[in-house]
Write a structure and sequence with these properties.
The chain contains no helices and eleven strands. With about 140 residues, it is mostly beta strands. Strands 1, 2, 3, 6, 8 and 11 form a six-stranded mixed beta sheet that branches. A three-stranded antiparallel beta sheet has the order 5-9-10, with no helix packed on it. A two-stranded antiparallel sheet has the order 4-7.
Length: about 140
């Protein structure tokens, strides 16, 4: 099955990043190729380390109780993208390090399945996850213009 997505650019820090509160947010844009595609819901996301091995991170739909952010807990809305149109999703996590022996996790890649049963795509990312072990994923949306 051919890929249906290509990354138009690197994931970028969203407007919700608040370093002082240790809350991080990232926007992950994706471009549709070469025929129309319908999306509804959340992408399947795995966080990988520098060697591209999966990290023990729990991925939840919505804000996962990490922070209160607009649109993270909204119900997904169906989208239909024409060739070369963009969609995006957002991630949120808290960079908190608890005392103890557990080393903080640092994700270096995201492994993304835009739709169930479709090929996965690995893109570079920089996620300083601390020791919380979880991220929240917002539903697919079209970029604000």
């Amino acid at each position: 099955m051919p890929p249906i997505w290509s990354p138009p650019g690197s994931p970028r820090c969203g407007s919700g990043c608040e370093g002082a509160r240790s809350v991080r947010a990232m926007i992950v844009p994706m471009e549709s190729t070469p025929s129309p595609i319908s999306l509804d819901g959340h992408p399947a996301v795995r966080v990988l380390d520098a060697e591209r091995a999966p990290l023990a991170v729990t991925v939840k739909h919505g804000s996962a109780g990490i922070a209160t952010l607009a649109n993270f807990d909204a119900a997904p809305k169906p989208l239909t993208l024409q060739p070369r149109e963009y969609a995006e999703f957002q991630l949120v996590w808290r960079n908190t390090v608890a005392l103890g022996n557990q080393a903080p996790d640092n994700g270096r890649y995201l492994d993304i399945a835009p739709l169930p049963g479709r090929p996965r795509l690995t893109v570079p990312a920089d996620l300083d996850l601390g020791t919380t072990g979880r991220i929240g994923v917002a539903p697919w949306s079209t970029p604000a213009r």
